[in-house]
Write a structure and sequence with these properties.
alpha+beta; 2 strands; Trypsin Inhibitor V, Chain A; signal; elongated; 107 residues
Length: 107
Amino acid sequence: MAKFAHVVAFLLLASLFQPLTARDLEINVLQLDVSQSGCPGVTKERWPELLGTPAKFAMQIIQKENPKLTNVQTVLNGDAVTEDLRCNRVRLFVNVLDFIVQTPQIG
């Protein structure tokens, strides 16, 4: 009976838990503005409309809209990547089902 009480107490506490995010703490997150970084000839820098789409489809759209992007990479969300800026690169962060989970942008 004591174990059952512990489980019930845990579930009640867990239902009250809310994740703590930077937005809740009003912390400003640094966003790199590519337009000020000196990428010449860039016609489009971000593709928010591609969130939730398959990676192959997103890659075709990005290369069609901006032919100067010669390095479109598919990266599993959470994998380590370099933070250097490349004007010809877009990283597509995908989940295990190969769907875009972060807004693709030049960098």
